[in-house]
């Protein structure tokens, strides 16, 4: 069994990006819009700011109060859509309940939508011609590539059907010629499907849901879960300690997919800036 080292891979990609940015005639710019006081969101956004600084990407965090109206938030997004100094815009999720997330994500110009959540970018991905990829699925594909995982012809099972992870990773695996199944909370024969999966991506948000006896020996197991226990310790959706003895390759939590999520956002920002320059 090999444990995928998300930290080492993220550092490698970041260092490559730093070299690319240093050679660019302009500095790529990323704006992160943070609404409210969600503690986890605050940490994620400042992590993005730190990553950007390390790579040489200019960044700005726009902090807005929880009470902001949807119209005001839409106006803020539009302001950055119109400003050519900024190549990437993200709105940190989740948003407060009174704001319609979909309307806000739709407001981001697809060329600046470095999260890849705009319906245009989702449609381009599903048509097989992606422009911007959501960061978590892009990071997973980067990991599979770095560890030379053969995807073509393999049975891939994605547990979870969110627009952020489940659906896009399923499409990326399909584009890499895997035979893909998407399972979810209403799937009836879930453990049967898990047992048959050569590549298993788990994004269901249930603490250590997948156990060693569930997994096909030699499977590649990618854990997207981030669940905190009562003591504040982070666990994935996969019971790492037992599944690691059955899998051929496995991602840890923390130190796996999350770190690549942050890095791929930087990569998309650099790509967006390059496209703005037509290079
Ligand atoms: N606009 C967006 N909002 C959200 C996204 C997103 O991709 N775009 N994803 C998540 C949060 N997220 C990034 O924003 C994110 C979550 C976790 C990590 C990470 O590095 N995880 C570490 C563990 C961190 C810890 O100890 O708490 C790991 O897995 O090793 C990065 C980014 C929701 N919102």
Automatic annotation (TrEMBL):
GO terms for biological process: L-histidine biosynthetic process; methionine biosynthetic process; purine nucleotide biosynthetic process; tetrahydrofolate interconversion. PROSITE patterns: THF_DHG_CYH_1. Pathway: One-carbon metabolism; tetrahydrofolate interconversion. InterPro entries: Aminoacid_DH-like_N_sf, NAD(P)-bd_dom_sf, THF_DH/CycHdrlase, THF_DH/CycHdrlase_cat_dom, THF_DH/CycHdrlase_CS, THF_DH/CycHdrlase_NAD-bd_dom. It comes from the Bacteria. The keyword Hydrolase applies. Its EC number is 1.5.1.5, 3.5.4.9. Catalyzes the oxidation of 5,10-methylenetetrahydrofolate to 5,10-methenyltetrahydrofolate and then the hydrolysis of 5,10-methenyltetrahydrofolate to 10-formyltetrahydrofolate. This is Bifunctional protein FolD. It comes from Lactovum miscens. The gene is folD.
């Amino acid at each position: 069994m090999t444990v995928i080292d998300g930290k080492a891979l993220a550092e490698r990609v970041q260092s490559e990006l730093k070299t690319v940015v240093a050679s660019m005639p302009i500095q790529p710019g990323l704006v992160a819009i943070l609404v409210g006081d969600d503690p986890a969101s605050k940490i994620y956004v400042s992590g993005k700011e730190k990553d950007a600084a390390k790579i040489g990407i200019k960044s700005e965090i726009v902090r807005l109060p929880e009470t902001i109206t949807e119209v005001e938030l839409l106006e803020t997004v539009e302001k950055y859509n119109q400003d050519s100094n900024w190549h990437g815009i993200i709105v940190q999720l989740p948003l407060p309940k009174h704001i319609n997330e979909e309307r806000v994500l739709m407001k981001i110009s697809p060329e600046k939508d470095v999260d890849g959540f705009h319906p245009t970018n989702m449609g381009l991905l599903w048509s097989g011609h992606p422009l911007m990829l959501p960061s978590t699925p892009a990071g997973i594909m980067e990991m599979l590539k770095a560890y030379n995982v053969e995807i073509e012809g393999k049975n891939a099972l994605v547990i979870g059907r969110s627009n952020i992870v489940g659906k896009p990773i399923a499409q990326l695996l399909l584009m890499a010629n895997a035979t893909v199944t998407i399972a979810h909370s209403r799937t009836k024969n879930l453990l049967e499907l898990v047992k048959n999966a050569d590549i298993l991506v788990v994004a269901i948000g249930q603490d250590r849901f997948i156990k060693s006896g569930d997994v096909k020996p030699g499977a590649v197991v990618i854990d997207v879960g981030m669940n905190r226990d009562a003591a504040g310790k982070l666990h994935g959706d996969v019971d790492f300690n037992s599944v690691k003895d059955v899998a051929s390759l496995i991602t840890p939590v923390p130190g796996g997919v999350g770190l690549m999520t942050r890095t791929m956002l930087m990569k998309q920002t650099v790509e967006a800036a390059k496209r703005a320059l037509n290079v």
